[in-house]
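In the design runs reported in the main text, the only information available to the sequence generator was the tokenized backbone. The following block is the verbatim input for one such run; it is reproduced so that readers can re-run the procedure and compare outputs position by position.
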């Protein structure tokens, strides 16, 4: 696994990088090829956050964990990633064998400081991406792999824009924009 390290409000030490490399190497057996990953270390108000994004061909797997110790955050994030890979191994394998991959191109763009909503909060980040056609099962898989509570996609059959979200009862909801 090729790793890129990013530090926000923290100086990255060699021991921190080595610990992340050592722990993330446990995931290598799950991938058939050399994959890239971005490891972001953040500190804020005494809390230490590790965010790991693994870039698979045409897909992403992501985990973000916060604890009072950076090394514990690394351990917890790797545990979450391991569970995700094991849980979705069958679906991922089927999708890649059938050559049905999710093409998800995503980039971040920062906004001017004066961008505020009506309640006075600031928009801190804006994302733009291409909506790829997929069915509900693929959208749920992608949402779970990203560890998000919602996912925006284009329905493979109707071509309409859909929002998939996790409900409080653990099930999923879907909103479809009819044009």
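Verbatim output:
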């Amino acid at each position: 696994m090729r790793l890129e390290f990013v530090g926000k409000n923290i100086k990255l030490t060699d021991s921190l990088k080595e610990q992340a490399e050592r722990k993330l190497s446990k995931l290598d057996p799950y991938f058939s090829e050399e994959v890239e990953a971005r490891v972001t270390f953040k500190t804020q108000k005494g809390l230490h956050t590790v965010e790991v994004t693994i870039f698979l061909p045409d897909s992403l797997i992501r985990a973000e964990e916060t604890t009072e110790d950076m090394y514990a955050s690394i351990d917890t994030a790797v545990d979450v990633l391991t569970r995700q890979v094991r849980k979705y191994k069958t679906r991922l394998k089927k999708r890649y064998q059938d050559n049905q991959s999710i093409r998800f191109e995503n980039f971040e763009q920062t906004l001017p400081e004066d961008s505020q909503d009506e309640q006075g909060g600031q928009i801190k980040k804006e994302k733009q991406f291409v909506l790829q056609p997929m069915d509900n099962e693929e959208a749920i898989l992608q949402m779970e792999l990203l560890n998000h509570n919602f996912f925006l996609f284009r329905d493979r059959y109707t071509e309409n824009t859909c929002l998939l979200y996790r409900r409080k009862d653990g099930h999923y909801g879907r909103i479809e924009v009819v044009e």
